[in-house]
Design a protein that fits this description.
The complex is a heterodimer of chains A (about 120) and B (about 110). Chain A is mainly beta. In chain A, about 0% of the residues lie in helices and about 55% in strands. Chain A has no helices and twelve strands. In chain A, β5 (about 35-40) and β6 (about 45-50) form a beta hairpin. In chain A, about 35% of the residues are buried. Chain B has about 110 residues and is mostly beta strands. In chain B, the strands form two sheets. In chain B, strands 2, 4, 5, 6, 9, 10 and 11 form a seven-stranded mixed sheet that branches. A four-stranded antiparallel sheet of chain B has the order 1-3-8-7, with no helix packed on it. The chains are: A mainly beta (about 120), B mainly beta (about 110).
């Protein structure tokens, strides 16, 4: 079974600064997918970024980028130029697709507070 | 707005009762997933349906059941409710098939068991 670990329960960053959220995972699989989801106070789960394990290039989406280290089983999220609207819980998630079956395994989340 | 709809938004019921949560996936999506978010268990996968058939199962209690209908909407039935079933229940959908498409989440149904 796969496990996802987020070791930082809470983090704080000032507006316009950069912050990195950590995530490690444990799997014996070779082909899999990793995601970061954001959950703001509204409780909506919003997809932030996705990474395919077979791709060496790190994914980027505007101010969001990842540092994917497959051998180390590490998948950190970097948020640049932090904005107040980035305040949210951030969840790292692992997915393995087998035929038409798939599921997300989530970490426990990191609560990010962006301050003025 | 993800395009995934869930009803109702809130549900308050008593222990021992039965409730049904409803989910409509995004247009074109064939896969539906159910997740439970609680304070003690975190975000947990319950079950997945693809084009009407069960495809993956997580730690779903025997008191819980789900189905996906021909129009692709899905229902999650929770019976003999206990206080510990109080949680936020999410439905997510994806295009499905054998390619690993992203899952998009609905706004959730907040269930409170008293």
């Amino acid at each position: 079974a796969q496990t996802v670990t987020q070791s930082q329960p809470e983090m704080s960053v000032q507006e316009a600064e950069t912050v990195t959220l950590s995530c490690t995972y444990d799997t014996s699989e070779n082909n899999y997918y990793l995601f970061w989801y954001k959950q703001p106070p509204s409780r909506q789960m919003i997809l932030v970024i996705r990474q395919e394990a077979y791709k060496q290039q790190n994914a980027t989406e505007n101010r969001f980028s990842v540092n994917f280290q497959k051998a180390a089983k590490s998948f950190s999220l970097k948020i640049s130029d932090s904005q107040l609207g980035d305040t949210a819980m951030y969840f790292c998630a692992f997915m393995k697709q087998t035929g038409t079956a798939s599921k997300l395994t989530f970490g426990t989340g990191t609560r990010l507070q962006v301050t003025l | 707005d993800s395009g995934v709809t869930q009803t109702p938004k809130h549900l308050i019921t008593a222990t021992g009762q039965r409730v049904t949560l409803r989910c409509s996936p995004r247009s074109g999506d064939l896969s539906v997933y159910w997740y439970q978010q609680s304070l003690d268990q975190g975000l947990q996968f319950l079950i997945q349906y693809y084009n009407g058939e069960e495809r993956a199962k997580g730690n779903i209690l025997e008191r819980f059941s789900a189905q996906q209908f021909p129009d692709l909407h899905s229902e999650l039935n929770l019976s003999s409710l206990e206080l510990g079933d109080s949680a936020l229940y999410f439905c997510a959908s994806s295009v499905g098939g054998t390619r690993p498409y992203e899952q998009y989440f609905g706004p959730g149904t907040r269930l409170t068991v008293t």
